[in-house]
Design brief:
This protein has about 260 residues and is of the alpha+beta class. Helices cover about 35% and strands about 20% of the residues. The protein has 5 helices and 12 strands. The strands form 4 sheets. It has a 5-stranded mixed sheet, with helices on one face. The protein has a 3-stranded antiparallel sheet with strand order 4-1-7. Strands 2-3 form a two-stranded antiparallel ribbon. Strand 5 and strand 6 form a beta hairpin. The relative contact order is 0.15.
């Protein structure tokens, strides 16, 4: 005859196995493999500057003192000396007309250009004032937001100015067990208008989608599968009921044995 302690340990073991079985089922839901295709020939699209973007525009030449005139607008400064390490980033804001105001040049059309195109344009115009200028243009507001059924929702700054939707979901810790993989929404603003795109992460053709590579200020929203929630709730109720039934049966047996 088994001792009451052994029976109780057996009971808890059964309950743990039931819970583990439920957890394993949920984990398997996360292991849907994306049907990948050969994407080596797909070119990463260049970002296009839009109204409201914030740019860092760095100028370097053989005359560092003259360069300061063009670089000062990149930073908030408390003194005459300007440096990235001792100042807060300010940058050049693309105004409602799509322009920036640049020293000596004046209004300069930036909207609709890539950063490399704007670099070439500014360089040509600065050759009148500087000897062999080098111009660097970077986005200061390249960030993406990931919301919904992901492990770590939030806003992420992207210093490399290049990120795919797969990398973005990776930053957010992957989808939760309730995330819908075949209907991920991307919210994007183009010309002050909001547009919506959808990606199926289970399909190999996601690399062909214009939403595979994200743009500045894109938002990703992963919806929740209500059926999974319902199934999970039902499984939990069944496991609890099973556990209560087992404990009740063992209590009856123990009570009979004690008699």
């Amino acid at each position: 005859m088994k001792r009451p302690g052994s029976i109780l340990r057996l009971t808890f073991g059964i309950l743990m196995l039931a819970a583990t079985g439920c957890a394993t089922k949920n984990i398997n839901m996360l292991q849907s493999n994306t049907n990948l295709i050969n994407a080596s020939g797909i070119k990463v699209p260049e970002l296009v500057i839009q109204k409201g973007d914030l740019l860092f525009i760095g100028v370097n030449s053989h005359d560092p003192q003259s360069d300061m005139r063009y670089n000062t607008n990149n930073y908030y400064t408390s003194g005459a000396q300007t440096s990235a390490s001792s100042s807060n980033i300010l940058g050049y804001l693309i105004n409602r007309d799509g322009n920036i105001k640049f020293p000596d040049i004046g209004d300069l059309k930036a909207e609709g250009q890539t950063t490399s195109e704007l670099e070439d344009l500014i360089k040509k115009k600065l050759e009148t004032y500087l000897n062999m200028p080098i111009v660097t243009v970077r986005f200061l507001n390249f960030k993406i937001t990931v919301l919904g059924e992901v492990t770590r929702p939030g806003t992420y700054q992207i210093p490399t100015e290049k990120i795919s939707i797969i990398e973005a979901i990776g930053l957010a810790g992957d989808l939760t067990v309730y995330g819908v993989r075949n209907n991920v929404m991307i919210i994007r603003e183009v010309d002050n208008k909001r547009e919506y795109g959808f990606i199926d992460l289970t399909k190999g053709d996601i690399f062909q989608s214009p939403y595979f590579y994200l743009k500045q200020n894109d938002a990703i929203y992963v919806t929740m599968n209500s059926r999974k929630v319902s199934n999970a709730d039902q499984t939990t109720v069944r496991n609890i009921s099973l556990g209560i039934g087992i404990v009740s049966a063992i209590a009856i047996i123990l009570n009979a044995l004690n008699r």
